[in-house]
Specification:
binds manganese (II) ion; globular; 9 strands
């Protein structure tokens, strides 16, 4: 499927809306002005002034509105711009209707682990690009939150939050973080598959945190193990928009929870696992007592010991 994007003035947009008034679908996407459908083309106009033409008749339709403004976009199915797709993945995976799954918070001393599985149909891809979905590592937390709020309005997804108390309980009972992640991904994917049924994704892509056989070993003994069409790749955010979207939603949830923790602590809690979190944890213990720590941090991190050392020194 090909796309054409035009950038038009607000005057031209009004003209256009008039022109398509008998074809309006009444379902404008987030950030959208209107959406219209002709037999060979779907037209979506955005408040930004961009108009997206999709479908076999898109070139012809767009030409009515001035081809000199055409922004050269073609579906990237043939030539994926970003990471190389490993041989174990279908080579057209980027353009399949797929579930993507990713997690956030595993390396942060403070805060939970959030895992999100999100479903992106091929026809939703241009909209996701328009909204600004991309590798969350290139986005600020602010931008992530803006995009996430739009995504959760229409994108099918499942979000899981493993809070610190539960995390610490599982960890001290001997469960590795890898196994926790595998269980969360499997569960989020399961929830989402249930939501989607009877529709089935063409692929499920997990941002890889363990080798495939290790992932499935973690899941052994589980009642339901989702295996069908499941693929793994590192840097999967750059391979499929569903992973990028999942990552944005997971990150947004993580940041929101982090803000709650800061509020409860009474001061701004830092991210990561560097020396600044040792200082913050020491302050937290000093002000609230050691017993609150399990609901704020991942206790088994070396930072716990470092925070205790800082406290001892300050006495
Ligand atoms: Mn990841």
């Amino acid at each position: 499927m090909s796309n054409v994007v035009l950038k038009l003035s607000s005057q031209e947009m009004r003209k256009m809306m008039e022109y398509y008034q008998n074809n309006l679908t009444g379902k404008a996407p987030p950030g959208g002005l209107f959406s219209a459908k002709t037999p060979q083309c779907t037209i979506t106009a955005y408040k930004s002034g961009k108009v997206l033409f999709q479908g076999s008749g898109c070139n012809e339709e767009a030409r009515k509105w001035g081809s000199d403004a055409v922004e050269k976009t073609e579906t990237k199915a043939k030539t994926p711009a970003t990471p190389k797709i490993s041989a174990s993945l279908p080579n057209n995976i980027s353009s399949l209707s797929a579930i993507g799954s990713d997690e956030v918070g595993t390396g942060d001393f403070f805060g939970p682990i959030t895992v999100c599985a999100a479903y992106v149909r091929k026809e939703d891809m241009p909209l996701l690009k328009e909204i600004g979905v991309q590798d969350s590592k290139n986005l600020t937390d602010e931008k992530i939150s803006t995009i996430a709020k739009q995504l959760i309005k229409f994108l099918p997804y499942s979000l899981l939050v493993l809070h610190n108390v539960k995390y610490n309980k599982l960890q001290s009972s001997g469960m590795s973080q890898g196994k926790m992640k595998a269980l969360l991904h499997n569960q989020a994917i399961g929830h989402l598959l249930e939501k989607l049924a009877p529709e089935k994704p063409e692929a499920i892509l997990i941002d890889q945190f363990a080798k495939e056989e290790v992932y499935f070993k973690y899941l052994s003994g589980q009642k339901v193990i989702h295996k069908e069409n499941v693929y793994f790749s590192t840097k999967a955010e750059g391979i499929h928009l569903a992973v990028a979207a999942a990552s944005i939603i997971a990150r947004h949830a993580f940041v929101q929870h982090f803000e709650k923790l800061s509020k409860a602590a009474g001061f701004k809690i830092p991210k990561g696992a560097g020396s600044q979190v040792d200082v913050a944890a020491a302050r937290l213990i000093k002000e609230k007592g050691k017993e609150v720590l399990p609901s704020y941090v991942k206790l088994h991190f070396a930072n716990t010991e470092k925070a205790m050392n800082l406290l001892r020194k300050s006495k």
